[in-house]
Specification:
mainly alpha, 171 residues, Ferritin, binds MU-OXO-diiron, 74% helix
Length: 171
């Protein structure tokens, strides 16, 4: 049985994950618009991942018999600037999500809700990976600078990313 506070915070986290999905879908659309199909692919995979994060929390609330309350999703921006700007915004957003997960974990521990604390572990690990991926791409984009060939290579690399459904990766 989840407390009201935990239920509210997890419902809010669903909304943050849904906004993340929406944000990355918007970044994918922007990338397509400026002719960076590899970036568009990377962000569409990211969109799919975020949807699974939202569903992971949804299913946890469902298993716990808690009330699921879906909230309005904010409108994301349309234009994200250069590829470097876009990834810096992505990293900043993921840092915001990491803080949100950490706050949730602090709350679960304060409430002695160990089931939720264990459930949140997966997200703690996932956030390390997400920030690390973004940092890696930012480093490459900085190295490429204004070099069109470098950007072309990064676009090609990001185009190879494939969405792996949670069941297939044993999560
Ligand atoms: Fe679901 Fe990218 O955090």
């Amino acid at each position: 049985m989840l407390s009201e506070k935990i239920t509210k915070a997890l419902n809010e986290q669903i909304n943050k994950e849904m906004y993340s999905a929406y944000l990355y879908m918007a970044m994918s659309a922007h990338s397509t618009y400026v002719g960076l199909d590899g970036f568009a692919n990377w962000f569409m995979v990211q969109y799919q991942e975020e949807m699974t994060h939202a569903m992971r929390i949804y299913n946890y609330l469902k298993e716990q018999g808690a009330r699921i309350e879906l909230q309005a999703i904010d409108q994301p921006p349309v234009d994200f600037g250069t590829p470097l700007d876009m990834f810096e915004k992505t990293l900043a957003h993921e840092q915001f999500i990491t803080k949100s997960i950490n706050d949730l974990l602090t709350l679960a521990n304060e409430e002695k809700d160990y089931a939720t604390a264990i459930f949140l572990q997966w997200f703690v690990t996932e956030q390390i990976e997400e920030e690390s991926n973004d940092n890696e791409i930012i480093a490459k984009l900085k190295l490429a600078g204004e070099d069109g060939n470098g950007l072309f290579m990064i676009d090609k690399e990001l185009g190879a990313r494939v969405f792996v459904p949670p069941a297939a990766e044993g999560k």
